[in-house]
Write a structure and sequence with these properties.
By secondary structure, the protein is an alpha+beta fold. The protein has 16 helices and 27 strands. Helix content is 24%, strand content 25%. The strands form 6 sheets. It has a 7-stranded mixed β-sheet with strand order 3-5-1-13-10-11-12. Strands 7, 8, 9, 14, 15 and 16 form a 6-stranded mixed β-sheet that branches. Strands 17-18-23-24-27 form a 5-stranded mixed β-sheet, sandwiched between helices. The protein starts with 12 loop residues before the first helix and ends with a helix. Bound molecules: dioxothiomolybdenum(VI) ion (MOS).
């Protein structure tokens, strides 16, 4: 176990606390026109006409742009685009909340008021197809985020036929929105033939390349600045319509344009996690050894995005030994805005179904849920037979049970304190490691000043402190003495701040650069030597990428590479009100070498709270008749607050996985929200005897 609580404080902390850290909407730009969008109010139809006459005479209005006024954009796939259907390129309406017009005015209020005066006429309006009526089709395709729709090993039907116990249940999860506190926004202007874009993004290089592609220009003529990002949670990973719209509007009127979305607009213009339907079948011997595991997952996706695939059937690929495993991924194409990966996509969504089913199996077999999982620990990847690069699941489960004080668990519905029913639940979790290329540069001057330059996105996860920690370790310096420049496309690029891969990629690149700098410094006789030789600066560059044989998402060809965790929770359920609170949570993780314990703990604590929202609160209600999210605000979309959350105990299993990254690190950004929802659902069952198979668990489920 790691015992040190020591860590590196965030160098970006003081600027944020004092308010001097500027986010896109705050950045002053005197000449910028302020844009407001007019969005479609129908989900499926055709734009018949736009009456802008009243809006154009409103105070402060500069211009009202329809699709005919904007330049044509080159088509690109999704990703990198959020919606494959490009904004304001034609009259077809593909989803409710699609941009129809851009109003440019002197101030925000003028633009918003004028936008309300634009009259939109539609024809060919049709009732949208909803999730519950669309046909489920195999989720296959060329996108790098799509696994094969159907994968199997062994014979599931034979495994079910010889099982002593079978669980066959359906689980559902709700539509969810990422809701970062900083709204999406872009300030764009053209300087000669060059484009400057200040935007809030998890993908600086991706945005640069995408805008270059859309507008038909070389990437080096596009400069993207994204110094601070006030949360993204996946919603800022892809390029969403407001970014090219701000650029196109700036081009159309030859003025800088500032376009900041409202909270409501973010409900249709930057993705959501799609509602899912999942069926899990488990077969087991009476001793609790799996004979079959089948997971079928289907979800809504949008016609406006080819289709997005929520790879929830990845949940169990490396979790348990079973002679037969079959996974079937389906999508249902409907008329709604595009879904997108949202922290934590894929496994965390599927984990609810798989780990709820495992709890149901443990109950059926009268076996402790911890013991059931330990009995199915595989010695190699159960789907592929590949060796694990490192495997910490069993250690996570054992350590979690110890820290929680799990054994012996009291009988179901036996713990009560006043009005509260108390329950204990647990879940295992795993998430495939994604990896991508990264680069970094490091400079040292003769006075001993060290600067690391990297185009990383500072999305609140603590990456600059990670960079300091890595460079300081190599150079044998104090982390605080290393400055980190980040957030700009002119700096060395990396794949992007998503997929829990930044520490692996950027950290490894910084490690390589710092090691080279150290050699150069030693050869020069240290800083003293530099001064004597009159050398003002030394620089070193480092680049890291997964081995060439790795998959498009960076998965190793030779090893099964995952991060692991075990989550143990105690919930209190108000017996009269049905209200569930998280009393305490123990999360133990095996996530490679932990570079900065302080930030790592913070990430996983936040992930657990995120998982609590998944389990008990978050639900975007879609009005099927209109293909429209009903509650486009934080009053109707509930997220956890301090009062909801009790004691959270996060710890790590010693793990140093050099097969996964040069640094020995793996991803920690998203494993924390994994396994929380099933642990809570399992604890609610333990408290009440009531099994809830639909997320979020709502009060009426427990009354
Ligand atoms: Mo995360 S959904 O990969 O930003």
């Amino acid at each position: 176990m790691r015992t040190t609580e020591k860590g590196v404080l965030r160098p970006d902390g003081p600027a944020k606390l004092t308010g001097s850290a500027l986010y896109v909407a705050d950045k002053p730009h005197q000449e910028a026109l302020v844009a407001a969008l007019v969005l479609s109010t129908v989900a499926r139809g055709r734009l018949a006409g736009l009456d802008t006459s009243v809006a154009e005479t409103a105070p402060g209005v500069h211009r009202v742009l329809g699709y005919e006024d904007l330049p044509r954009l080159n088509p690109l796939p999704s990703p990198p685009l959020g919606h494959t259907v490009l904004p304001m390129q034609g009259p077809i309406v593909h989803y409710e909340g699609q941009p129809i017009a851009v109003v440019l005015a002197g101030t925000w209020h003028q633009a918003r008021y004028a936008a309300s005066l634009v009259r939109v006429h539609y024809d060919s309006v049709e009732r949208p197809i909803s999730f519950w009526e669309a046909e489920a089709i195999p989720a296959a395709g060329p996108s790098m985020l799509r696994a094969d729709a159907d994968v199997a090993t062994g014979d599931v039907e034979a495994g079910i036929a010889r099982a002593d116990a079978v669980i066959d249940e359906v689980y559902t999860t709700s539509d969810r929105h990422a809701n970062p506190i900083e709204p999406h926004g872009t300030v764009a202007w053209w300087e000669g033939g060059q484009l400057v874009v200040h935007t809030t993004t998890q993908g600086i290089a991706l945005t640069q390349q995408t805008l270059a592609g859309l507008f038909g220009m070389p990437p080096e003529d596009v400069r993207v600045d994204s110094r601070y990002v006030g949360g993204g949670f996946g919603s800022k990973a892809y390029v969403w319509p407001h970014i090219p719209l701000a650029v196109a509007a700036a081009k159309a009127c030859d003025r800088p344009v500032r376009l900041v979305l409202t909270r409501a607009e973010m409900y249709t213009l930057c993705g959501h996690q799609p509602a899912t339907w999942q069926r899990v079948r488990l077969g087991s011997t009476s001793e609790g050894r799996l004979t079959a595991l089948e997971h079928i997952g289907s979800h809504a996706t949008s016609r406006a995005v080819d289709y997005h695939v929520e790879n929830m059937t990845q949940a169990a690929v490396a979790l348990y030994a079973s002679p037969a495993i079959a996974l079937h991924a389906r999508v249902q194409q409907v008329d709604r805005p595009a879904p997108t990966p949202m922290r934590s996509p894929n496994e965390a969504v599927g984990m609810f179904a798989v780990e709820s089913a495992m709890d149901e199996l443990a109950h059926r077999l009268d076996l402790d849920p911890v013991e059931l999982r330990l009995r199915n620990e595989p010695s190699a990847d159960p789907m592929t037979g590949k060796p694990f690069s490192s495997r910490t699941l069993e250690a996570c489960i054992r350590e979690g049970a110890r820290r929680f004080g799990w054994s012996p668990r009291p009988p179901i519905a036996s713990l009560r304190e006043g009005n509260d029913l108390i329950g204990w639940g647990m879940s295992a979790c795993a998430m495939e490691v994604h990896r991508g290329p990264a680069s970094a540069r490091i400079r040292a001057d003769a006075n001993g000043r060290i600067v690391v330059e990297t185009g990383l996105e500072e999305i609140g996860t603590g990456l600059p402190a990670m960079v300091q920690a890595v460079a300081a370790e190599v150079l044998d310096l104090v982390p605080e003495d290393i400055r980190v420049h980040h957030g700009d496309s002119t700096l060395p690029a990396h794949v992007g701040g998503f997929g829990s891969m930044s520490t692996m990629g950027i950290g490894s690149a910084v490690h390589i650069a710092a090691s080279e700098l150290r050699e150069k410094l030693e050869a020069a006789g240290g800083f003293e030597g530099l001064r004597q030789a009159g050398i003002t600066e030394l620089t070193a560059e480092g680049a890291w990428a997964p081995e060439p044989t790795a998959s498009a998402t960076g998965a190793s060809r030779d090893f099964s590479t995952h991060v692991y965790g075990a989550v143990f929770v105690e919930v209190r359920v108000d017996a009269e009100l049905g209200f569930v609170r998280l009393n305490r949570c123990v999360g133990v993780y095996g996530a490679g070498r932990i570079i900065n314990p302080l930030a790592a703990r913070s990430q996983l604590t936040g992930g657990i709270i995120w998982g609590y929202g998944h389990a008990l609160l978050e639900r975007s209600v879609l009005e099927n008749e209109r293909g429209r999210f009903l509650s486009k605000n934080l009053a109707g979309y509930v997220v956890p607050v301090n009062a909801d959350i009790g004691d959270i105990d996060v710890s790590f299993i010693e793990d140093d996985d050099r097969r996964t990254s040069a640094l020995g690190a793996k991803g920690i950004g998203e494993i924390g929200a994994n396994g929380v929802a099933p642990a809570i659902a399992n604890a609610v069952f333990h408290a009440t005897g009531r099994r809830v198979r639909d997320l979020p668990i709502q009060i009426h489920d427990l009354l």
